[in-house]
Each structure stands twice: as C-alpha cells, then as structure tokens.
Amino acid sequence: MSGACTNTLANLRGRIARIEAHGDAHDLTRVALGHAAADAALCGGLAVAAVHEVFAEGRQSATATGFVAGLAGRLTPRRPLVWVRQDFSEIESGALSMRGLCELGLDPRLVVTVRATDTDAALRTAADALACDALGVVVLEVWGPARQLDLVASRKLTLAAQASGVTALLLRVGAEPLPSTAETRWIVRAAHSPPSAPWHAWGAPMFDAQLVRNRHGPVGRWIMEWKSDECFFTEPATHPQPVAATPAHRPHQAAAIGQQRRAS
C-alpha cells in the first residue's frame, strides 16, 4: 500500500473514531426542539450536521413522515430541504403533499423532492445532496429492510454531514433498526390529539416519540405536540379545552351568589 493511501486510511479511521467517541457532546451544534424533557435528554437539542434515524412502527408511515417534517422545520426553517424517496415508498404511501407540509409549517418553495429508482440510487442521491452546504437538511426515505443501509453506508453519510454541515434525517418504514453511526434513533407512533374547538377540523399533531438511541445522553419516551404556526414541539397542554373568560358586563358567579345569600 502506498504512503498516500496509508495516510488517507489513517485520516478516515481517525474521523470515524471521533464520531464514535462519547467525549465530543459539547462540540456539537444543537437546535432545541421545544419539548423540555426531550431537549434535556438531547443535551440541549437535536445535533446539527449529524445523522438521525426515525422508524415508523407498524403502519405509521404518515405519522413518521409528519415527525420528520417537524424535525426538518426546527433544523432548517429558512434553508432548502431535499427529500429523497425510493420509488417503492411512493407506491406504498403515496406522494408527499406540499399542502400537508405547508400546514405543518414547512415552506413548500424550499422543498425539493427526488424520486430514486431503488435503494442504491437513493443512497447515492442523498450522499450527493449532503455534499451541498447550501442545504439545511436532507431526508432519505427508504422502505423495507434495505441491506445497503449498513454500518459502512451510515458512516459515509455521517462523514458527509459533518463535512458540509448539513443534517441527514433517515426515514425508515417497514424496517428494523441495524447498527449505525446515527446520533439519535427514534421510533414514532401516533398519539391521540386533544379535543379541539368545534370550528377546527382536527386537533394538533401529536406524536408518541420514543428515543431508543442517544449517543450523548439518556433515552426516553414522550408525548410531543407539534405547534405548526410556531414550528416547535411542546408538551401537551394540561387543559386542552379552551376555558371561557368571565363576561365583563356582569359580576362573577361567586359574587352574585354572595349577594343572593345576603339578600335572603
């Protein structure tokens, strides 16, 4: 082996060792999600320029898609987003709805969708997109147990994300978690939305989000509500139903009852 190849291999091994080390938690730039308990477990928020995995449990692909859209909205509110989808994903779950992404708080004008013929093409496209530092987030959506998404592929994506500063979100549907260099791994399920006002067609997006892998902190499971207008996650409201204020033109009920008692 030539000296140049030996040096390149040593540099790659050093970079991988730094990725897999646990002492660089404070060197990572993080974006707070808004959910206090989740942000505490994540040492302040989701790491930028890293790889994060989101798995849909069962038939929860729409839920996981919404959760990934929320993460992308927090990480890159004003920078372009590239969403790479395997063709089979579109066959199984349908095309991405730009109107739906808009209702979740994303700007459709900043979303670029790419359809790849297979897993290999999706991986190549995602890697090329991660090399573009003008982007904010690259979403790689692959359906099923793709053997190509192994530890080696995960390391390549992580190195590309670190080099460019672009965050990679891997959306996995119909797949089981495998060893990877991902910073975090989530399993997402739908949670019941709180009762909404009669004039609302549906409640706020609610996620049962389980953090099963966290390279620099504890894991946990939380109910996370997505605020589409403010673009952040939060804890569900204790009293989801709106409470009517006391009318200003008449006395408080307790005062009225007191007057009746004095009169009697």
What does the model show?
The protein has one domain (3-263): P-loop containing nucleotide triphosphate hydrolases (Rossmann fold). The longest helix is centred in the first third of the chain and has 18 residues, at 3-20. The relative contact order is 0.17. A hairpin with a 4-residue loop joins strand 10 (220-227) and strand 11 (232-234). The strands form two sheets. A nine-stranded mixed beta sheet has the order 5-4-6-7-3-8-9-10-11, sandwiched between helices. The chain has a two-stranded antiparallel sheet with strand order 1-2. The protein is 34% helix and 24% strand. It is globular and about 65 Å long. Residues 240-258 have low confidence and may be disordered. Helix 6 (119-130) packs parallel to helix 7 (151-164). The N and C termini lie far apart (104 Å). With 264 residues, the protein is α/β, with parallel strands linked by helices. The protein has helices at 3-20, 36-41, 61-75, 87-93, 98-103, 119-130, 151-164, 253-263, and strands spanning 30-31, 46-47, 51-56, 81-86, 111-116, 137-143, 167-173, 184-190, 206-214, 220-227, 232-234.
Write the layout of secondary structure elements.
Elements: H1 3-20, E1 30-31, H2 36-41, E2 46-47, E3 51-56, H3 61-75, E4 81-86, H4 87-93, H5 98-103, E5 111-116, H6 119-130, E6 137-143, H7 151-164, E7 167-173, E8 184-190, E9 206-214, E10 220-227, E11 232-234, H8 253-263
Parallel strand pairs: 3-7, 3-8, 4-5, 4-6, 6-7
Antiparallel strand pairs: 1-2, 8-9, 9-10, 10-11
Helix pairs in contact: 6-7
